[in-house]
Amino acid sequence: MDQLTPFGRMVRKIRIDRAIRLSEMADHMRVTPAFICSVEMGRVKIPEGWGKKITDFFQLSPTSEKELQEIINQARI
Q1: Mean pLDDT, to the nearest integer, of 52-63?
Q2: For residue range 28-47, what is the model confidence (pLDDT) as tens digits?
Q3: Residue 52's CB: how many other CB atoms inside 10 A?
């Protein structure tokens, strides 16, 4: 069974907490909702530049931005 990665858990939680639809995020990221789902589940690697795009889209605080970047860096090890 598929499980969310730490990246997926964080991004999905932010999206749900802010009542943003997956399709809205996908439009902003210029990908399909299925692609975002695949990244959240770890089936696809987190694309370069997504940390900045997600930070800008959600207008993350510096603390949340740092946490997101740490999760992304950890996923790339």
Answers
A1: 96
A2: 999 999 999 999 999 999 99
A3: 12
Q: Alpha-carbon distance 29 to 20, whole Å?
A: 13
What's CA 30's distance to the chain center, in Å?
Answer: 13
For residues 26-37, b (16+ Cβ closer than 10 Å) or e, as one string? beebebeeeebb
Q: Where are the domains of the chain?
A: 6-75
CATH number belonging to domain 6-75: 1.10.260.40
Torsion of CA 58, 3, 41, 49, to 10 degrees: 50
Whether 67 shows a pLDDT value over 50: the answer reads yes
